[in-house]
Amino acid sequence: MFGMLKGLIKTSTTFPGANHADEEDDAVEHYETGIELARRQQFPQALKEFRQAAAREPRWAEAHYNIGLTYAYLNRTTEAIEAYNQALAINPDYAEAYNNLGLAHASLGQHVEAVKAYRQALRAKPDYAGPLTNLGVLYYSMGSYQEAASVLKRELKLNPDYAMAYYSLGIVYAETKDKESALTACEKLLELDPKLAQELMIIIDQI
Fold first, then answer.
1. pTM of the model as a whole
2. Which one of 2.60.120, 1.25.40, 3.40.1350, 3.10.310 gives the CATH number of domain 149-207?
3. Is 193 helix (H, G, I), strand (E, B) or coil?
4. Angle at CA 108, nearest 5°, toward 128 and 39?
5. Which CATH superfamily is domain 15-126 in?
């Protein structure tokens, strides 16, 4: 079970705090170059471009977010956290930034901070599946299986065809030796992803 980073966002056309049209154009050029470089997995070069965009438009939350995301791909987690927090200082309702902030804290073993970030993401966007998945994974890793199951079931209400959520829920039930519930999750998973269901069944058979 694992959390996944939210992918690079598309270029925004709104620039909070912009002063002059020429500064906006320059920021956009650096930003879009950064997006293209990141898609090619040229992350050090992408980082330079996103930083240039943020320098020209300091109140552009998406630029700071992509700085954080690029730092995350470079395994520079502390710097990623700083960049996500900069984005959130500009836009306190930035659910994607909260989600990735949670992932960063979780990767450092900072569970309390991670839970807080995921919950803030869900307050900003209640139907956002990413933080639900990641919160369930985190609770599982902390041994909080009841909380993990509750979060995953909430996610399945939003996304009833999400195979990975059924797989994760089956893992949680297997961990708590609830074979009947694990098998029910596996049956649902079989309809969506037979290969993943086979993997889950191997685990269930060990109960």
1. 0.82
2. 1.25.40
3. coil
4. 55
5. Tetratricopeptide repeat domain (1.25.40.10)
